[in-house]
């Protein structure tokens, strides 16, 4: 058989495949999410996220040092607020001595160069487990934005490099940007969860922070998973309002959205491989149905190939290990 072109030539050996690989993951592409709790010497394994832990601050600092030493350069912080601090205003979210603010300072003191990003949304602080303030059964937009602004300023004041609003209220990126400027935090960035879908894949995360909505769902603020054009609209608006980095979330069921957004904006695009996506791989691996390491590398590489410059993933350490 005579063939003018033989595509398999480029797949003949591992060395050739590496030479022509179009996508390469780097430790510096990864964002490691961290769950932080009150107390001392706590290392609580999240039942629906086997192998992933919620740490007290002392153990968080040990973890941050380990991440830095592995080459991971960015952490995204979430705190579990004590029940007694929860209300319908979310005011614990901007308590200058709150767990988040204390954690930001401690991490910055311990590993000053680590890029610290913080989740900005009211759900961990809300008695209703919603991302905003609730009035007559509705999540009110404009008052919530005012709360998110205060929360962002307090994170910036504590030393966060980026605030990451994950709430999907309208106008919050612009309001946060203006407030950062007005309060002297012109160097603090915004990573906006710009296309965040109302997804069942956040289930395990809500176990980790005890933040499941007490009534209803999040469909009046998070996006409908049927929509694509709307994701572009949301993202372009966030860029206009001042987002430095935009995000698509979840990742694997939304690779088409990641690609379209990558083609539509001129800011870095991140994607969040969320808790349920982590749990699916873990569960299948535990059953012996998937090779965990291979599933991790294939999944995370596919997210970068789709167009994500940065990837938040609970597998960050595994990815670095697998890159060898
Ligand atoms: C809070 C927030 C959520 C996640 C990140 N920030 C949960 C939610 O919106 O209900 C989910 C992350 C994950 O599932 O890994 N607004």
Compact description:
With 324 residues, the chain is α/β, with parallel strands linked by helices. The protein has 11 helices and 12 strands. The chain is 39% helix and 18% strand.
Unreliable residue runs: none
Question: Helix and strand succession?
Answer: HEEEHEHEEEHEHEHHEHEHHEH
DSSP E strands, number: 12
Write down the domain tally: 1
Going across the biggest sheet, name each strand in turn: 1-4-5-8-9-10-11-12
Distance between the termini: 40 Å
**Ligands bound here?**
ligand PBG
In DSSP terms, counting alpha (H) and pi (I) runs of 4 or more, how many helices? Answer: 11
User: What is the name of the CATH architecture?
Assistant: Alpha-Beta Barrel
Structural class: alpha/beta
What does the main sheet amount to? 8 strands, parallel, barrel
CATH class categorisation: Alpha Beta
CATH superfamily, by name, is Aldolase class I
Question: Gyration radius, to the nearest Å?
Answer: 20 Å
Gross morphology: globular
What does this protein look like?
There is one protein chain. This protein is an alpha/beta fold and 324 residues long. The chain has a single domain, classed as TIM Barrel, CATH 3.20.20. 39% of the residues lie in helices and 18% in strands. The protein has 11 helices and 12 strands. It has helices spanning 14-20, 57-70, 99-110, 141-158, 172-182, 203-209, 229-241, 255-264, 275-286, 292-306, 316-323, and strands at 30-37, 43-45, 53-56, 74-79, 115-120, 133-135, 138-140, 162-165, 189-196, 245-249, 269-273, 310-313. The strands form 2 sheets. It has an 8-stranded parallel β-barrel with strand order 1-4-5-8-9-10-11-12, surrounded by 8 helices. Strands 6-7 form a two-stranded antiparallel ribbon. Strand 6 (133-135) and strand 7 form a beta hairpin. It is globular and about 75 Å long.
């Amino acid at each position: 058989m005579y063939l003018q072109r033989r595509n398999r030539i480029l797949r003949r050996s591992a060395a050739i495949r590496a030479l022509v690989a179009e996508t390469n993951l780097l430790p510096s592409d990864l964002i490691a999410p961290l769950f932080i709790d009150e107390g001392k010497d706590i290392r609580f394994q999240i039942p629906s996220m086997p192998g992933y832990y919620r740490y007290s601050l002392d153990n968080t600092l040990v973890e941050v040092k380990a991440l830095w030493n592995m080459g991971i350069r960015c952490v995204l912080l979430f705190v579990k607020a004590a029940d007694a601090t929860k209300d319908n205003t979310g005011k614990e979210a901007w308590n200058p001595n709150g767990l988040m603010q204390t954690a930001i300072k401690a991490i910055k003191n311990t590993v000053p160069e680590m890029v610290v990003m913080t989740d900005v949304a009211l759900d961990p602080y809300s008695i209703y487990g919603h991302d905003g303030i609730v009035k007559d059964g509705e999540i009110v937009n404009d008052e919530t934005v005012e709360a998110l602004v205060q929360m962002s300023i307090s994170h910036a004041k504590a030393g966060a490099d980026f605030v990451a609003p994950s709430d999907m209220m309208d106008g919050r990126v612009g309001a946060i940007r203006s407030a950062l400027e007005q309060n002297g935090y012109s160097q603090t960035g915004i990573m906006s969860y710009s296309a965040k879908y109302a997804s069942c894949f956040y289930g395990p995360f809500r176990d980790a922070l005890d933040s499941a909505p007490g009534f209803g769902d999040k469909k009046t603020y998070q996006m409908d998973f049927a929509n694509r054009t709307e994701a572009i609209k949301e993202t372009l608006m966030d860029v206009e309002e001042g987002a430095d980095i935009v995000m698509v979330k979840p990742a694997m069921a939304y690779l088409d959205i990641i690609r379209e957004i990558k083609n539509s904006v001129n800011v870095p695009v991140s994607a969040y491989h969320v808790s349920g996506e982590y749990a699916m791989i873990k569960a299948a691996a535990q059953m012996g149905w998937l090779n965990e390491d291979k599933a991790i590398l294939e999944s995370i590489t596919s997210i970068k190939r789709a167009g994500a410059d940065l990837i938040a993933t609970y597998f960050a350490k595994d990815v670095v290990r697998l890159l060898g």
